[in-house]
Amino acid sequence: MKTKQESIFSSKTLSYFLQLADTMNYTQAAQLLGITQPALTQQIKKLERTVGAPLFYSVGKKLHLSDAGRTMLEATHSIYETLNQATDEIQQASNANSGVIKIGMLASIESSAFIGFSAQYYKENPDVQIIFLNMTRHEIWEQLENNQIDLAIMYLPDDTIKNWKPYESRKIVDEQLLFLHHNEKLAKRKRVHFSDTIAQPWVSYPESYFLSYFLHEAYKNQMVDYPHIVAQFTTPFQLLQFLNLTGVNTALPNSFYQAHQDEIDAYAVAFEPAVTFELAFIFRKGKDTIPRVEQFLNRFDAYLEEQDYLSRVAENRVKLV
After folding, report:
1. Which of 55, 116, 126, 255 could, after both became Cys, cross-link 69 (CB 3.0–4.6 A)?
2. Coiled-coil ranges per the record (predicted)?
3. Which residues contact 279 (CB under 8 A, 6 or more apart)?
């Protein structure tokens, strides 16, 4: 028979509680966890019976943490922090030239430079296994929090995470979005105003994706209506294909355009004002002192010192053709 401690502190129970505390929405939390809403509700009620107090309460349709819930949340974060620190301390004694490095990457990021670097790194360090995982930004933050990935490659600034104290970032390159279109009247422009980009329909990323959210904010700041979206896809390759087949517009990062411009049947121009952001490594504080992670990051820096990021993107794209 399980003890009270085993019932409370099972990995599944805590992950369910944390996800609901993060979203404050049973439906959304259940979808992210890959379970049904009744199953999530049952698990939370079971946890509340075990601790002897309600962890959440509702005001209208809005969910809130109770005092007991806030106490449980602090305790849960403390437990995860202790486990993460123990894991990092164990790994810090490991060999720089062996082991596994898990990296979460946004699906919207052009990956050719990272694949090229990984191939080079493998030749130098054949006993280090590098695992790249395509994720949404919410999945990345969850797995960073739970120490399930060592590094994340994503765009900044990202307001998904409210508490940056446990994390560090290392910039890879400054990025900007390009407007891709089929209007010959705009073809020779070096920059295009937001108001000139909405005459034709668009294909875009889903609204929850960083680039879609970031672009929404840019249009809002320019006080221009957001373009009419006729389709949404999760990878830049899907956007490219739909763009070519239909003649609609879109916006894609400059690095992706540089890597695939020969495949894109559209004109590309920067926005005015420019829509800029940062591509960066994100990791938990102290993670870069683990020998194999430290060596990986330092070698990547050297890789870009030898040749800049956009050149690496173009170089490795040519090799793949």
Report:
1. 55
2. none
3. 109, 153, 154, 155, 156, 171, 172, 173, 174, 175, 255, 309
